[in-house]
Write a structure and sequence with these properties.
Elements lengths: L1 H11 L3 H14 L8 H5 L2 H41 L2 H20 L6 H21 L2 E3 L12 E7 L9 E6 L2 E3 L2 E4 L1 E6 L14 H4 L14
Parallel strand pairs: 2-6
Antiparallel strand pairs: 1-4, 3-6, 4-5
Helix pairs in contact: 5-6
């Protein structure tokens, strides 16, 4: 009897606050496996593998970003160098012509033989054209060619019995193209064909010539 009444009194003396705290603790532990905690989850093999994968991707991204920045700087430097020194090859092709011109200027005098002058300048002209040809520059053919608005620029038209209509008869200024691109069209004069023949002259009336009109003689008239 004593023990039973003692247990009943102990249950009756439990406070509502202690009972509420026990219930909250039970709810907090619901849904979690026994013995599981945050520290234990961080040490699982799956979590460690994800951390290693993340670090690997982060390292790859950092290397790619550095490589791209180096590529961008290198490309910018190459473009600046191309703009600044891109004409070097063309200059090397033209320097021999300048050398020959300087030699000719130093050797020729005012009383030099005209044939020697002609020969010197012809040689330099041929050398210059060879240098331009090595750079891909070609002269556009014109005289005797059919007029092409993509390669020629007509500055005038002229009658010609030798050249048919729309044919170039004279070149005012040479044209050039770089490979397949026209850098300067040829300025030319185009034929309009043979001139029209003049109509035969007809007898003009006396009034138009200003001479007095003559009366025809009657052979039957009496004198």
């Amino acid at each position: 009897m004593f023990n039973k009444s003692s247990r009943q009194e102990a249950q009756e003396t439990e406070s509502p606050e202690s009972m509420s705290g026990a219930q909250d603790s039970d709810k907090h532990n619901e849904g979690q496996p026994e013995g599981a905690s945050t520290g234990e989850t961080a040490n699982t093999p799956d979590f460690v593998a994800l951390q290693e994968k993340y670090q690997q991707l982060q390292d790859q991204f950092t290397r790619l970003a550095a490589d791209f920045e180096n590529y961008r700087k290198r490309t910018r430097d190459e473009q600046e160098s191309l703009v600044k020194y891109g004409a070097q090859k063309s200059i090397l092709e033209l320097l021999p012509v300048l050398d020959n011109l300087e030699r000719a200027t130093g050797s020729l005098k005012e009383d030099s033989d005209p044939k020697l002058l002609y020969k010197s300048f012809s040689m330099m002209h041929r050398q210059l054209m060879d240098g331009l040809d090595n750079m891909g520059v070609k002269k556009i053919p014109s005289i005797g060619q059919v007029f092409d608005p993509l390669q020629h620029e007509a500055v005038s038209q002229m009658n010609s019995a030798e050249f048919p209509e729309d044919t170039i008869i004279h070149e005012v200024q040479s044209g050039y193209q770089l490979y397949d691109k026209v850098v300067r069209p040829a300025r030319v004069i185009v034929s309009t064909g043979a001139p029209e023949e003049a109509a035969p002259e007809t007898a003009k009336p006396a009034a138009a010539t200003g001479e007095p009109a003559q009366t025809p003689v009657n052979p039957f008239a009496q004198s």
